[in-house]
Design goal:
The structure holds 2 protein chains of 2 kinds.
Chain A lengths: L8 H5 L2 H9 L1 H20 L6 H26 L7 H17 L5 H24 L5 H20 L9 E3 L3 H8 L1 E2 L2 E2 H19 L1 H11 L1 H6 L4 H27 L1 E3 L6 H11 L11 H21 L4 H21 L1
Antiparallel strand pairs in A: 1-4, 2-3
Chain B lengths: L4 E12 L2 E12 L3 E6 L5 H8 L7 E6 L2 E2 L5 H6 L2 E4 L11 H6 L5 E2 L2 E2 L1 H15 L14 H14 L4 E5 L7 H16 L3 E5 L3 H7 L2 E6 L2 E7 L5 H9 L17 E10 L3 E9 L3 E6 L5 H8 L7 E6 L2 E3 L4 H6 L2 E4 L3 H5 L6 H6 L14 H14 L16 H13 L5 E5 L7 H16 L3 E5 L3 H7 L2 E6 L2 E7 L5 H9 L3
Parallel strand pairs in B: 3-10, 3-11, 6-9, 9-10, 15-20, 15-21, 18-19, 19-20
Antiparallel strand pairs in B: 1-2, 1-4, 4-5, 7-8, 11-12, 13-14, 13-16, 16-17, 21-22
Helix pairs in contact in B: 4-5
Classes of the chains: A mainly alpha, B alpha/beta.
The structure holds adenosine-5'-triphosphate and magnesium ion.
Chain lengths: 333, 496
Amino acid sequence: MTAPSAAPAPSRSSYRPHAVRRAVGARESWVFAALVALCVVMSLASPYFLTVRNLFNILQGMSTIGIMTIGMTMVLVAGGLDLSVGSILAVGAVLTARLMTYAGLNPWLAVVCGLLAGVAFGLVNGLLVTRVGIVPFIATLGTLSMGRGLAFLLAAGPAGTVASNVPMRDPGVTFLGAGYIGVVPMPVIIMVVLAVLAALFLGNTVLGRQIYAVGSNVKAARLSGIAVPRVQLFTYAVTGLLCALAGVISAGLLSTAATNLGQGVELDVIAAAVIGGTSLNGGEGTVHGALFGAAIIAVVRNAFVLLGLPLHFQTMIIGAVILLAVGVDRVRR
Amino acid sequence: MQSPSLVEVRGVEKRFGGVHALRGVDLDVRAGEIHALVGENGAGKSTIINILAGAVRRDTGTILLDGAPVDFHSPADSQAAGIAVIHQELSTLPTLSIAENIWAGRMPSRLGWVDQRSTFDRSASLLEEVGLDAAPWTRVSELATSQQQLVEIAKALSRRARLLIMDEPTASLTEHEVQRLLALVRRLRDGGVSVLYVSHRLAEVFAIADRISVMRDGCTVRTMDRADADPAGVVALMVGRALAARAAATPHALGAPVVELRGLSRHGAVHDVSFAVRRGEIVGMAGLVGAGRSETARLIFGADRADAGEMLIDGQPVALHSPRDALAAGIGMVPEDRKQLALFIDAPVRWNVSMARLPAISPGGIIRHGRERALAEDFVERLRVRTPDTLTPVRHLSGGNQQKTVLARWLAIRPRLLILDEPTHGVDVGAKAEIYALIRSLAAEGIGILLISSELPEVLDLSDRIVVMRGGRVAATLDRAAADERTVMMHATGTA
Ligand SMILES: Nc1ncnc2c1ncn2[C@@H]1O[C@H](COP(=O)(O)OP(=O)(O)OP(=O)(O)O)[C@@H](O)[C@H]1O
Ligand SMILES: [Mg+2]
């Protein structure tokens, strides 16, 4: 009688809705519904909202944050935190631009170097957390500051002149940030491709599964034979890579790598992940949820522009959205 | 001379989503009685307790306290009404001291300052009462699971409640502590406290209860005086089917040692431990709480490092630096505390079952969902895990079914040596028999098994050999034929 097959028929069918909700992801479907509702309201409020051009503008605006959020989601799901994402972005961008413009390196080789620097930055974060044992908040707060300093250092001109940005004009590389394929901006394509890859990775690989395991119970993960430090290191390294890529894209969009690129962006990235259902306690979160979260932030921003609302309310509204999203989730449980 | 009811539960029902957990519970606990509540895993015992504790709201039905209807909106309401609950899962806070855990915000105070002296004295006397030999300022994280269980009991006692509810308080205690606890419970009863007592150990239930209620599938099927009850009848009521006959040990030859310990030590926990487990052999470890059994198991599994001594696997010296190394060497371990050390509580049953095995059935690191599902469903069926499906979060399962999920994870890896630390913690009688049969058949296939259990009959029944530990040392190694309850206890307590 304890066998599941002996369960009475009526209760069996009543599990269906659960199964459906589970497939979509309960939290994510709410976030998606909220996003749709927001878009409906906006399209009623402004005739410009529902135009192809505006929609792609929104998507382009959120793409660098979206790309970083993919990494941040992995870090958070594994129970970590990375405050240094904005600094990694700047280092990746400035280093790439410098190698290309001042050192005359082959542009694509420069991009590869910039991305590798991002990975190295991420590995440093990961090692500080896993080997030295500093809590992620403090470790990445430290590297946030150091990384920003490094970006300033890298921007210094060939003769040691102080500069606040380094030009980056290679048409191939700037295409990553400023190009279009048809009507679709290149960064949007990159974001979507990466998101799909990351979602497939998290859902279908052993390492992806282990990221969830480590975040939901680190002791149990270790006792289940999971190489916990390696899993955590991986999430920081991937985040480093994605942030550096976001840096190259941002610099490409502007044709210049500014040293203050991505300053304060960590708050948006964390907010997007949290709105999208990622738990700061680890073990929970999805890539698509995080992107819905990033999209909500982007639509709110767009609303202020289209409706000509006073900009100082924008930050307040985004803060309210975070509290609302997390609060509703708490209450719903 | 029937005493009046303290608490009466009438027709209580509860649904969790699609799961009809309680279908009509009637229960009355009289003033000054010990009332045992028994039933299979998932019968609804913890659910009705959670309702009485104010942690879960009932859907329908009434609860009367001293004859007046009550409605608990929160645990605070229930506590204010004089109910103290020891929950099935530990709720101790590991970073706090024993005293802080016991008093949790209710510390004896003077003018708003915690009165250290009286906190200390009162904690010490509670610890004495429950038989925990530790200083009140010891951090709970330094205690073994069974010792934390005693802290939970001390905490409930500190409330001086009228109704004390205990949900499997003895599941990780050994005979010695159990006897102490039972004596304590009797003293409380004689002092006028009512006790609602949940346990899967029928011997204990018959030793202590004044009345016994049996639950099955969310209903109370009968309440009887102990004098009118017999264990076989109670089991029949619980299970509603005939129990599988006890699988006799299949005689099989023992092979070469799978693992051999030579003078293994870890400061403060394990001293100079030497023994071997052979292929196909079931070695039981007996001892009191704190005797170093789980600590030894953790050393073998690479979860802790040894300070001295060596370990051989298949005759070769090895150094295991992590459980991962141990897994690679073919060692598996079911740890003692499922909630803290084993479960991914919000993850589906399927993930929990497959976690250790997953790399092996995922070529190229890509999960084959069909294989994973088949693996999980196979074990859910074999261990009779009561769950709607394998995608249900393991949090929604009853305690015993969660334990079976953990067991499944380690049975799934097909190890050379399987360490089982309290494998039947909280598992009902029927399922226990099935798990024993499974352990025996694994041994017959040539797997070495190291079994730690606080239930001596379990160890005596299954083991080919018994290692008795005391104070972190091997006190005796007994052959099956030479081992009986008395001899083992004498070695365990040092009175041999
Ligand atoms: N939060 C929940 N969500 C869904 N189902 C639940 C929840 N809590 C309990 N259940 C279900 O209710 C039923 C009764 O569970 P309960 O924990 O009361 O059993 P139990 O008698 O205490 O069993 P055990 O002996 O294993 O501890 C089980 O089928 C369980 O899966
Ligand atoms: Mg229970």
